[in-house]
Amino acid sequence: MTRFTLLVLCCSQLLSTSLSAASPTAGKTLQSTVRAGTQNVQHEPPELTGRPQAAPPPPGPALRQFAQSKVIRAADPENPKTLRPAIAELTDLIRQEPHNSDFYFLRASLACYARADHVNVLNDLAQSISLRGPRRNGDETLKERYALRAKVEFDNHRYDDAMRDLDTAIKQDYDSAQQIFNDGGTKPSTIAKPCVWTLADLDTLAERYPTDYRPPLYRGLYLSYFLAFDLESDYTPLIDAFERAATLNPASPLPHFFSGELYTIGRLGGVMSTANAKCLDYVVPRTPACLALDEARRTGIRSLTRAIALDPTFMHAYAIRANALYDLKEYQQAVRDYDEVLKLAPEGDTVRSIYNDRGLAKMALGHYHSAILDFSRSIALGCSELCQSYENRADAYLKLHNYTMAIADIGRSIELVLPSALYMMNIEQFRRIYPEYDAVPDDVLCEKLRRLFYHALSYTSFANEFLIKAKEYSSTVLPDFFVKRGDAYMALHQAAKANAEYDRVSRAFPEWAAVVFTQKNGSRVRKPE
């Protein structure tokens, strides 16, 4: 699957939910009955008492046309006959919506594969980048725009411009810089191809600029992307490439940074590495496999330290080193590095996640009050489904025996994971979790949940999943929250509420119930932690 195909699929999927929400649905006739149908529910769980989310504005005609376009969806870079009609339709979409950055980018991508005039392709990419504006945190496609522009420039022998744009692409997000070489494949390519970077292109740059450190740096990033698909990969060429770059430019922190990243969060010491798979972090005393993992992380830390010595303002190096130090249980040093990141980081998701991570390090040090302050700062900056700051703050409150505050945060944590959980469970399992709604009709309950968590979906779309297609949902996260909330109620000597939480687990998640409960004299007993 090519990078262009992936991009079209991604854009289409993002728009499809908006389109369904804009369609006439049976849900509109239910909205007035939800309040009446649930008004007799006693003691609603807090995670289900929120205000319904406002529906997003419907997409304009151009976006609707794009999402429904069979011509654009059928465009295949390897089949030139499919490109011309897709380019024509994108041109029409640009006339309708001339400020849509994605339309220019998609047209440039197709035109590149169609071997169109490179000047027009570069103009489209320049317009796309300009309309994208300043880089937003997590904006993956701005990086892709620069990478494609660099390749078009390279193919037209504008090598200095190409490297300049590759450098800019890398700077968009150092933590995932290797993604600029993502062509939709899983193996390195040694044959030159249009519109995507290959090893042949990087060899050309190395021959033309033998004393420039950037071609071997690019080569290392290229290999780090593709070698990740093969667990048995030989990483020696990759490491050699970064070492070559460091030799050619001893003043640049980048070769040391990317080498350090490889050993700490990458394939030689990160979560997805074979070294990590052989060792659990909490194993004490350390086994030979765990000692090998620790040494890999220390190797990465040494490289990151070199990068920081060369550039004391390199925020990303501090952040990755902090996480590696945390993994090595060197919590005080991790807090020191998190402090540096907070001094250097712009506002946004980076700051939010760093507050959360610093809070975890403080938790490990037993500084629970200070950790709560950090988790609270993280939450204040915006906490969505993937944010664990409510859960972490609940754990800190539990350590301080502040069970009331812990219960409130556990409820918020449940609320954050419910959207993904509900979409994979059926209504029977939901009713086993929440018997409070036994008297509520299926359609009314379905509409209540849609309005709470799936405002971008039509009633028909959500009901098709929740009432018809969905099966049993297996999870450890959701039942663990219920157990933890039950434990907090038990600590407050509220046994009825505690048992209500435990019942949710026993009824709906029997496999997890077997882990946390045992039977004694015919009664359910909570196993000790």
Give a written overview of the molecule.
This protein has about 525 residues and is mainly α. The protein is about 65% helix and about 0% strand. It is built from 27 helices and two strands. Strands 1-2 form a two-stranded antiparallel ribbon.
Brief characterization of the structure:
The chain is mainly α and 529 residues long. The protein contains 27 helices and 2 strands.
Amino- and carboxy-terminal Cα gap: 47 Å
Q: Strand-residue fraction?
A: under 5%
Helical residues, percent: 55-70%
Based on helices, strands and strand pairing, what is the structural class? mainly alpha
Q: Could you give the order of strands across the largest sheet?
A: 1-2
Number of strands: 2
Number of helices: 27
- Rg over alpha carbons: 27 Å
**pLDDT below 50 for ≥5 consecutive residues: which ranges?**
20-27
Shape: globular
Mean pLDDT: 90
Largest sheet: 2 strands, antiparallel
